[in-house]
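Hi there, hope your week has been kind to you so far. For a while now I've been wondering how a particular protein folds. I'm sending you its amino acid sequence along with the backbone structure tokens. Could you read through the record and tell me how the tokens relate to the sequence? Take your time with it, there's no hurry, and the full record follows here.
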Amino acid sequence: MSKRERLYHLLFLALIAAAFGYGLVTALDFFPGGRFFPVTATAIGLVCCAALGLHLLWGAEAGAALDASTQPAEFSYAALFFLAFGLYIAVVYATGFFPATALALLVFLRLYARVGLVMTVCVTGATLGGTYLFGILLNISWPRGVLSSLV
């Protein structure tokens, strides 16, 4: 890995760590019962950022890749991911959490991960069922979407 690539990785890692830091500070203002998960998740994220930062600074050998990804590290892949995530958020807003998540899982598993149809349906069903169950157990009100008011 060149020094320039390492600098780009460190800058991006700093951006991610800043987002986790902001999330941690924000989560500390939540009521006591509601801050456990966000504080834990952001703290784990910050620890992972620190470990990756240490690896980038002292552990990564010259020319060594950070991951075993087969996808080329191009801007277009990152832009496509953020576009897809933005589209997912828009579909959640429009249709609600469960229809949007079902659509996102079906599209991702079939088109990107190239998982078989039966396995895709099983994984999507299990994910949605588990999410619904935890929603009931934790008394979570999932987003319903603006279109649900029209039905």
Summary: Helices lie at 3-27, 36-59, 75-95, 97-112, 117-137. The chain is about 70% helix and 0% strand. The chain has a mean pLDDT of 86. The CA atoms of residues 82 and 98 lie 20 Å apart.
